[in-house]
Each structure stands twice: as structure tokens, then as C-alpha cells.
Specification:
By secondary structure, this protein is mostly helical. It has two domains: about 50 residues, no CATH class; about 230 residues, no CATH class. It has 14 helices and nine strands. Helix 3 packs antiparallel against helix 11 and helix 6 crosses helix 11.
Length: about 375
């Protein structure tokens, strides 16, 4: 029913059980004159006031953050960084690199002494002058950083009593091989956002090589200088070239390394063997580091698959002492595969300065704190 002013006249039909606070206004059940829009606004206002009164001083439950595949991958990255930096295998790997550096310095001096003992500099100069006069007929010279050294002859008796004469040889390489580069520069490769463990992960089973394996192989090889293209910046010296420039000896003969066998005494031979062992230890400790962390990560991934909410992963992180916060779930701040961001390592990579384990932990923690501040 509408009166002359355009207002509706009717008995109220409000549910008194749910809106008991309106009872005083409608208990007389008399005709009420109102504008429909006004009464709706008044009711909503009173409902809101009533809710505020009931919830005053009470903390509303926060919505739990649900995990998905992308979020789990970011969380895995944080745990992997923690596992690596705190693994005793990581310390052993860094120590193996330091030991190799020390032995390399000593072995370069020893190799030059031995090679020049067999091929004196005056002989090199003579052949160089002959080449200048007679071209290739004057002889061959080659700048090499790969050498074979032989130990004194020894005898060995087999089970049938037969005696054999044996000459042991060792192959000493000062070049930067592909696999060695991935182990030696593992942290630098990770800082570039690449995976230096791709070849270790297949554990010699080449049937496991997927398209992603070859993609990563190419990317890592380009980073270390083992794969080049016409589009590369030729003004920059690659890691491979830097190692080649670091140590080369002009030798008499062809480029075939095995064509030159330099005989040495037993003591000198064992020193060269120490170098080969130190080089192998870098590769071995890399494999052990990967196996140790990968074992933990396999268990972690199974656990994360069963977690639906972020707070479950946070509870696990707190128990393990892992610095985990919601900020890492932001794609722009994820540290999934990198111990450090390329920006923070720019000066390090330029100056070729090697950080200690403690410095790396401090840097990783600082990055996580900065991530928390931003997010």
C-alpha cells in the first residue's frame, strides 16, 4: 500500500529471532511509514554494529595459505640451499677445491722444470728459427698444457711366476675440462641460475638424458666457455680460455699430447700423481655433495606433496632451523636454484674472489632478510 508521499505502508516482516535488536522498533506491530531504501540501510548498519560488538577484542582467524606446485618448488629451493650450505659434504668440496689450487701452483713449476729438462729452451729457439727459414719442414712446436709423465721401469710377477716389465704413466692436464669446470665453478654456475649437477644426477646412466638435460648442458657449456657461437661477445675471456692462458709450455712435437712422454724419477712421479688425485677429489666431492643433498631433497619432496598449507612447511622449517617465510612464494623473490642472486655476486665474479663458507652463509641469510623486508 502506497500513501500520497510515495512511501509504502505495511506490517514489518523482520525475523525477530535473528534480528532481536530490532524488536523494540516493531514489537507493537503497528503500521510503519518508511522508505524501502532507508530501512535496508538502517538494518545493514545495525547488523554491522552488532557484529563489531560481538567480535570486539577477538582476533579473526587468518586464512591459511594453500600450496600449489609452483609454491612447493620455491620452498624446495630454500630447503636445498640450507641443506647444501650446512652439509659437511659442502665443506669437503670447498676444501678439495682449495687443496687443488695449492697443488696446481706447485705442479706447474714442477712440470715446467721437467719439460725444460727434456726440451731445453735453446732447442725450442733453434726449431723456431728453422721453422722461420724452412716453414713446416723446419720442425714442429706446440703450446701445450697437457703432459704425460712416466715412472721408472718396475717388474711385476703374476700368479704363474711370470715376470713383466711395467712402466707406469700419469696424464697431467692443466686445462679446464667440461666436467671439472662444473665441479670447480659449481657455486658460480648456480649463481647464474643454471644447474651444475645435471650430469651428476644421471649417475652414468645415459638413458636418463632427456631434452632438458641437453638444454642445460648447452647452457652450462656456454657459461664456462666450452660452447661458443658467432653471437658471443668475443671481447670477454671465457673460463676455459682463462685456464688455457694461465699455463702453457712450448713443446717440440705435434698437438697430440700422448706423443710426448717425459720420464721422471719415482719421487717426482708421485708428486704428479698427487696433482691427479687432487683433481679427482674435486669431482668426487661434488658427486658426494649432490648425493647427500639429493637424498634429503627426495624425502622433503615427498613430505611437501602431503602438505596442503604453507604453515605445515613453515613448521617443518622451524624444526630444522631453515629460514622460511611467505616472501619466497613471490615469484620475483624466489631463490629456488641459486645460493645468491647474480646481482649480489657481480663483484665476486668480476674479481674472481672466493668466499669462505661462513661468508656464503651470511650472504644467503642477508638475501633472505631482504626478501622478507620487500615482501
Amino acid at each position: 500500500m502506497i500513501n500520497s508521499r510515495g512511501y509504502a505502508i505495511q506490517h514489518p516482516t523482520i525475523d525477530q529471532a535473528n534480528l532481536s535488536f530490532l524488536i523494540p522498533y516493531i514489537s507493537k506491530r503497528e503500521h510503519i511509514l518508511y522508505n524501502p531504501i532507508d530501512i535496508v540501510c538502517q538494518v545493514l548498519y545495525k547488523i554491522n554494529m552488532q557484529i563489531n560488538k560481538l567480535t570486539k577484542g577477538k582476533q579473526m582467524p587468518e586464512k591459511r595459505l594453500t600450496l600449489n606446485t609452483e609454491k612447493r618448488k620455491s620452498i624446495e629451493g630454500v630447503f636445498q640451499t640450507h641443506f647444501e650450505l650446512n652439509s659437511p659434504k659442502y665443506t669437503l668440496h670447498k676444501q678439495a677445491i682449495a687443496d687443488y689450487n695449492n697443488v696446481r701452483t706447485e705442479t706447474k713449476v714442477l712440470a715446467e722444470t721437467v719439460v725444460r729438462g727434456h726440451q731445453p729452451q735453446e732447442d725450442i729457439d733453434t726449431i723456431r728459427s728453422m721453422i722461420a727459414k724452412y716453414n713446416s719442414s723446419g720442425g714442429e712446436l706446440y703450446k701445450d698444457n697437457c703432459f704425460y709423465f712416466t715412472a721408472p721401469e718396475r717388474t711385476e710377477t703374476d700368479s704363474d711366476g711370470r715376470v713383466s716389465k711395467i712402466i707406469d704413466e700419469t696424464h697431467v692436464k692443466f686445462e679446464l675440462g667440461k666436467k671439472f669446470a662444473r665441479s670447480y665453478y659449481r657455486d658460480e654456475i648456480k649463481a647464474k641460475g643454471l644447474n651444475p649437477d645435471f650430469h651428476v644426477a644421471i649417475n652414468g646412466n645415459y638413458d636418463k638424458r632427456s631434452p632438458s638435460y641437453y638444454t642445460m648442458e648447452s647452457q652450462v657449456n656456454k657459461f664456462t666457455g666450452h660452447e661458443t657461437s658467432s653471437n658471443d661477445n668475443n671481447t670477454e675471456v671465457s673460463m676455459k680460455q682463462e685456464w688455457k692462458n694461465d699455463f702453457q709450455l712450448t713443446t717440440i712435437g705435434t698437438s697430440y699430447c700422448h706423443s710426448r712422454m717425459f720420464a721422471v724419477d719415482q719421487e717426482t712421479y708421485e708428486k704428479f700423481q698427487m696433482y691427479v688425485t687432487a683433481q679427482a677429489n674435486v669431482l668426487r666431492t661434488h658427486e658426494e655433495l649432490f648425493a647427500h643433498v639429493d637424498g634429503k631433497m627426495s624425502k622433503l619432496k615427498l613430505g611437501l606433496k602431503s602438505y596442503r598449507y604453507f604453515d605445515q612447511a613453515k613448521d617443518l622449517a622451524d624444526k630444522l632451523g631453515v629460514a622460511l617465510n611467505e616472501g619466497i612464494l613471490n615469484e620475483s623473490s624466489s631463490m629456488a636454484l641459486s645460493v645468491y642472486s647474480p646481482t649480489n655476486l657481480a663483484d665476486l665474479l668480476t674479481d674472481k674472489v672466493e668466499l669462505t663458507r661462513e661468508e656464503k652463509i651470511v650472504m644467503a641469510r642477508r638475501i633472505m632478510q631482504e626478501t622478507q623486508a620487500v615482501n
